């Protein structure tokens, strides 16, 4: 069985440690723990590893967030991964920082990366791991907040949250989304 794990983010040093790039951070830790290295391929940074007999392909789209669907669609076709085996790791303003939730489908909720995936990959029925970044910003400052770095307090908690997200990805591959939701969703 093949799985495609997609960490969403923006390429470029200026975005490296921003809230919007948490998908990249989780993908990096996933690759790091698997001992795999990244290659720059068409539309994405790419790596792969085996886990309990499964092929796990991991991408970080190089298309910028609002064109993420282009990379996801390309790699789904290339690797022949069905949509239910694609897991998108994404920042989410609608849930509090520290909350991690995996779900089998859902709306884009205004997220440009998810809108692009929805448009180019056949709708909303794909799994996603929502990494809560909260909505602690003044009115009209959403872009600055999302493209800004985690604050000092959040940075202290980040390694454990990224570790939990990696655990959720492994669980998704090994035992499926339903049990992962039951066992590992937080708050």
Task: Give structural notes.
- The record marks 10 as: Discriminates between blocked and unblocked aminoacyl-tRNA.
- This is Peptidyl-tRNA hydrolase.
- It comes from Sphingobacterium nematocida.
- With 187 residues, the chain is an alpha/beta fold.
- The longest helix is centred in the last third of the chain and has 24 residues, at 152-175.
- The relative contact order is 0.19.
- The protein has a 7-stranded mixed β-sheet with strand order 2-3-4-1-5-7-6, with helices on both faces.
- The mean pLDDT is 96.
- Helix content is 39%, strand content 22%.
- It has a single domain, classed as Peptidyl-tRNA hydrolase (Rossmann fold, 3-Layer(aba) Sandwich).
The CATH superfamily appears as Peptidyl-tRNA hydrolase
Helix content class: 25-40%
Order of helical and strand elements: EHEEEHEEHEHHH
Question: What is the architecture at the second tier of CATH?
Answer: 3-Layer(aba) Sandwich
CATH class: Alpha Beta
Separate helix tally = 6
Please tell me what the overall shape is: globular
Number of structurally distinct domains: 1
Provide key terms for this protein:
187 residues, alpha/beta, Rossmann fold, seven-stranded mixed β-sheet
